[in-house]
Amino acid sequence: QVQLVESGGGLVQAGGSLRLSCAVSGRAVSSYGMGWFRQAPGKEREFVAAISKSGEITSYTDSVKGRFTISRDNAKNTVYLQMNSLKPEATAVYYCGGDQDGGNWYAGRRRHEYESWGQGTQVTVSS
């Protein structure tokens, strides 16, 4: 059974940076397209970024383009989300998801495409 564990969240001032990690165990991360989603209080979980199994295709929500970078290290079975120039509206619990059924060059943006999820890590950006 695959397990996903997020880490790297915390409190940061606006304009600062954080790097989130999603460690995958129980199965090779190369078997999964991976995505990052976030959920703010009172809001639905929303797409942030995704990377294909091949690592060659990435996708971002418009509000983070140019500031966030998703990457994967298959040797470490880990996926990362580098977040720069953080804004207060980025405050949320961040979740990583695994998509086993997508193609090698597919980076899904929809929550229902991901069948495995981590427990989340809190990111708080102060103004």
Task: Report on the architecture of this protein.
With 127 residues, the chain is an all-beta fold. The protein contains no helices and eleven strands. The protein has strands at 3-7, 10-13, 18-25, 33-39, 46-51, 58-60, 68-73, 78-83, 92-99, 116-117, 121-126. The strands form two sheets. Strands 2, 4, 5, 6, 9, 10 and 11 form a seven-stranded mixed beta sheet that branches. Strands 1-3-8-7 form a four-stranded antiparallel beta sheet, with no helix packed on it. The protein is globular and about 40 Å long. It starts with a strand and ends with a strand. 35% of the residues are buried.
SSE inventory with pairings:
Layout: E1 3-7, E2 10-13, E3 18-25, E4 33-39, E5 46-51, E6 58-60, E7 68-73, E8 78-83, E9 92-99, E10 116-117, E11 121-126
Parallel strand pairs: 2-11
Antiparallel strand pairs: 1-3, 3-8, 4-5, 4-9, 5-6, 7-8, 9-10, 9-11
Brief write-up:
Helix content is 0%, strand content 48%. It is built from no helices and eleven strands.
Features:
single chain; 127 residues; mainly beta; seven-stranded mixed sheet; four-stranded antiparallel sheet; 0% helix; 48% strand; globular
Total of DSSP H or I helical runs spanning 4+ residues: 0
> Separation of termini?
40 Å
> Which shape, going by the Cα principal axes?
globular
Percent of residues in helices comes to under 10%
Residue stretches low in confidence (pLDDT < 50, at least 5 long) are none
Strand composition percent: over 45%
Order of helices and strands: EEEEEEEEEEE
Characterize the main sheet. Answer: 7 strands, mixed
Briefly note the structural class of the backbone: mainly beta
How many runs of DSSP E, i.e. beta strands? 11
Radius of gyration: 13 Å
Average pLDDT for all residues: 97
